[in-house]
Amino acid sequence: MKKGLLTLCAVLVLITACNTHKEIASSKGEPSVQKSPFSLSIVPETSHGEQFGSSIEMAHDKPRAFYVVLTNVSSEPQAVWEYWNSWGYQTISFELTTVDGKKFLVSRRQEGFTRNFPSTFLIEPGEHQVYAVHLDQR
To answer: Is 126 left (phi over 0), alpha (psi -120 to 50) or beta?
Structure first.
C-alpha cells in the first residue's frame, strides 16, 4: 500500500457552529468582536518513533486518523451542528499549504441526503467534541 505524506505547513480548520460571532458595543461606542467560545486542537493518532515529531497522512486507502478536538472555553453550553446532516456534514475543512507554497482546500465530498434535518450537539463548558478525520478518497 503506497501512502503519500504531505508536509503540513499550515492548517486552518473551519468549524461552523450554530453560534456566530456577535458585535458588542463598548462603552466608547465602538463595536468589538466577542471572543470565540471554542478552542481547537489537532491531535495525530501517534507521535512516537517519528523523526520530526507528529505527522498527519493523506493516502488513497486506510490513512491513520487524526483528531480535531473542539473545546468549549466559555461559561455557557454551546451548540454545534451534528456531523450526519447537511448542516454539519462539511463543517470541518482544512486549508493545507505545501512546502512550495501551494494551497489546497480539503473537505468532505458533497453527498445527497435522503433523511435530513438540522440537529445539534451541545458542548457543556469545559467539555469537548472530538472529530476523527481520515484524509483518504472517501
So the answer is: left
